[in-house]
Design brief:
The complex is a heterodimer of chains A (about 240) and B (about 400). By secondary structure, chain A is of the alpha/beta class. Chain A has helices at about 40-50, 75-80, 95-110, 110-120, 135-145, 165-180, 195, 220-240; strands spanning about 5-15, 15-25, 30-35, 55-65, 65-70, 80-85, 155, 185-190, 205-210, 210-215. Chain B contains 9 helices and 21 strands. In chain B, a hairpin with a 2-residue loop joins strand 2 (about 60-65) and strand 3 (about 70). Classes of the chains: A alpha/beta (about 240), B alpha/beta (about 400). The interface between A and B is medium-sized, with 29 and 25 residues.
Amino acid sequence: MSLLSLEAVSVCVDDRVIVRDVSLNINPGELHVIMGPNGAGKSTLLAAIMGLSHVRVCGGRILFSGVDITHFPSYERAKLGISLAHQVTPTFRGVRFLEVANAISSRFNTDWRTLASLLKVEDLLLRDLFSGFSGGERKRAELYLALLQNPRVALLDEPDSGVDIDTLRVLAELIDYIVFTQGTSVILVTHLGPILEKLPRITRAHIMVEGAIVYSGDPSHVIPVILKHGYTRGLEVFGGEGG
Amino acid sequence: MRVGRAEIEKALSKPSPFGVDIDVSKYVVEEPSVEEFKALELEESVRRASTRLGFNGIRPSYIQVDQTALYTLLEKRLRGYGVTVIPLRIALEKTDLARRIAWRLVDPRNDKYTALAYLKGGELGYFIYVPPNVKVDIPIYTCLVLKLERRAQLAHNVVYVDEGSEAHVVTGCAVPHGVREGLHVGITEFYVSKGARLTFSMIHAWSPGVHVRPRTAVYVEEGGEYVGYYITYNPLQSIQMYPVTSLQARAKAYSASVIVGLGSGDYDVGAKIVLEGSGASGEVVSRTLGLDESRITARAEIVGRARDSRGHIECLGLLVSEKSSITAHPQIKSENPGSTLSHEAAIGRISREELEYLMSRGFTEDEAKSIIVRGFMKVDVPGLPEVVRRHVDRIVGTISKLAMG
């Protein structure tokens, strides 16, 4: 039994179908990468797995450790061990980062200090959460809070966009560590190449276009082709290989 | 301040420029009296009032119940520092210092409340003196309780921290449950001498029907520092206060007000800092939470009169109830090109995005609201002693529950 299974999941926003018939199986300690052009539905898929209220599963079901969580609220999913590093984060005016970090670390019984040092967010902790943060600071802070939940499955929505090269290396090392040392499963959504070049042990790569996963395969095969040719031409290269 | 009695009597009808105007003649002022007490003798209603302030297990050095000043022998450690805490009335009889400085920072003619306290208060209230070059690391607690219906409680407090010293004063003002009507007027004058440091925390636990008019002025000499923290988190009828702090060269002040607007209360609260000396710096911070049908006005003003002086104002409001209102008036005024002043003000509500975000981190909607409110009301006040900080944190925890309804 997989840790996380998506069985022909379709996701709607209002009345529009954004994600169609996606099936995925994620086992413990696996790193899956979902790539795709802007607007492919990658973030919507992660939002549906997390159970955010602006999206609705309008077909299929989501299983976590065999339990159907398709209609669980997001906080129940978080308690089960699913965590999402959001692509877009709200600004908390007047609420310090440390307050939120403390609340999460008490809830999940984790140590906020070590991770803060690793992700270099200590200097941000006394500021209002996400208020006036640079792009890189925002990404590091968000990944920090997501990992503070000590998740069994971490959904990382473009953690690499807008970060400098040094931060990128730290992010890649951290992802590699939580997957292959701690046994956390990760679904990493990205449409950029650099972070993938720094992740040597990706389990599987998926290409998502227009709401559907159109190709899945061995990352050592898929990623170089996409990085070289882009999505349209890359998919032609894969032709009828199937994934 | 030496002015004629006739002038002060004239001020008895002078309203304050801010806040709801109160007919002070509705309230009875008891004959002032001073008594020594032992902690065990405190009657149940007074104990209950101090419990509402979170003063459980704390032995205040001065308690005023209505118009009776109760004072006790200082605890040994405070005595060891040479600290004096006595009713001002006694201090005025016994010490030149008290006579010299009382009513020097607050003019009794300011408004009807200062005039009433001057004319009828009998100089009840506390007098605290901290001798030079001592760091008093334990807080000095005082407690003012309004126990009887339709009474006016008038207190006049004078605190003098001598050169190079440090002290922490915590004053709780409360009514026991059940008091429906009353007026509390508290005049407080703080003198912070050269290189000295004073933190003053004021915690209020009133009830609907009580009007509150604190009148505070602070004078900080060269290189001194004053930190003021005010929190109110129980319903009241109205409060209006606008303490003024005057800073001399290289002196610093930080003023934080945490206001939880409840019931149909009218809250007009703020602080003014005047940067008189070069290198002086001041910051005024307020956090207001609008619940029920409360009306809150948050005022702040910094006046820069000296070179190399700096001031900043931050007024943030969170409107929880649609029937509540919050108004912010941050004001900066520069009278010297070498003064740098800034302000920011924002009033918002708990957004759906913030709630959704925290829910995705494992919190129910109510828990998410509570985290936001708690975080919002928790102001990081510099230099509060740990014991006071914990006290305040407990109160902020209570506030976050209040916001849940």
